[in-house]
Amino acid sequence: MRFNNDTELYRVIGKNIKHYREQTTLTQVQLAEQAKISISYLSKIEAAGCNKSVSISILNQIANVLGVEISDFFKEVNS
Fold first, then answer.
1. 3-state SS string over the chain?
2. Which residue, 3, 37, 47, 50, could crosslink 8 as a Cys pair with Cβ 3.0–4.6 Å?
3. What pTM was computed for the model?
4. Are 66 and 20 spatial neighbours (Cβ–Cβ below 8 Å)?
């Protein structure tokens, strides 16, 4: 997988987090609480125009709550 720029990378990650969150029927509030991050931070990550970088540690926390591999966040999914 390759990304032309950071904006594209963040868009794919945010879209995938939202996709997997919705598959597990968690709300943003529930995911944020379980991943131990703020709701505003999660909301920014999931936003379509987000240019917010995300640490590997945060991605790991979110992946663990959602029951997915971190690498799944980097793959283009059709939701």
1. CCCCCHHHHHHHHHHHHHHHHHHCCCCHHHHHHHHCCCHHHHHHHHCCCCCCCCCHHHHHHHHHHHCCCHHHHHCCCCC
2. 3
3. 0.90
4. yes
Task: Please count the residues of the chain.
Answer: 79
Tokens of 40: 């505003």
Distance CA(8)–CA(38), nearest Å, equals 23
Q: Judge whether 70 and 56 are in contact, CB under 8 Å.
A: yes
Measured in degrees and rounded to the nearest 5, phi and psi for residue 46 equal -80, -15
pLDDT in tens, 66-77: 999 999 999 987
The span from the CA of 1 to the CA of 32, in Å, is: 27
Rounded to the nearest 5 degrees, what angle is found at the Cα of 72, between the Cα atoms of 19 and 6? 85
What pLDDT is attached to residue 42? Answer: 95
